[in-house]
Amino acid sequence: xxxxxxxxxxxxxxxxxxxxxxxxxxxxxxxxxxxxxxxxxxxxxxxxxxxxxxxxxxxxxxxxxxxxxxxxxxxxxxxxxxxxxxxxxxxxxxxxxxxxxxxxxxxxxxxxxxxxxxxxxxxxxxxxxxxxxxxxxxxxxxxxxxxxxxxxxxxxxxxxxxxxxxxxxxxxxxxxxxxxxxxxxxxxxxxxxxxxxxxxxxxxxxxxxxxxxxxxxxxxxxxxxxxxxxxxxxxxxxxxxxxxxxxxxxxxxxxxxxxxxxxxxxxxxxxxxxxxxxxxxxxxxxxxxxxxx
Length: 293
What we know:
This protein has 293 residues and is mainly α.
């Protein structure tokens, strides 16, 4: 048996494992309920004990008062209270406290809406599915749910994975939206799934491919002329490729014992070589233009 950690660890450091890997995508409110229903206890790990869930606010709702930028977060001792009372995180705010049962009902209503979208998801064309998920995100992100709420993330993640294999078909506008969603999910993954993890590797893979399309478009619009911005995009592409490759090269589930690398790693390795060639060509052209000037 081979066990790998997703990041470097210190000698004697305590290692933690999720009770169910899929539950990590849920916020504390839902995850605590599931753990309580199946295990009969409340988890008190670093994330569960933190009212902000390591500053991801995955269960938080926005404050309903006008002009208030705060969010409803649980009290510090939420994990030990039977009926926790949540208050607005904005200290000067005079918003009334909200029992956890009320927040559960609010999120369950939105979750039901999300489940209805997902139930019909496989029967819809990709373009229609993307529109529905985009509408769900714009309707609830920052209005009732915190922009990092787990339901917003679920919609964003589903959108990205749906479009991920069709990015060459995207318009320039939709490509920018796709890149924005990938960056959003990577930002959260850097906190909750740090190091060499599948979530980070997948977002970095999608980003490298989407940014490469954007790079090609910019190069074409500039008629082959290079700029510092184009070089920066290539630098970012190379970074995401190399980071993603760290995961895929060791993904033993995608390769046989005889293969040095699985299909995803082989494909990514080819893309790395191609981008490196583009980068060297671009740098040489930039240097030559500088000398001529």
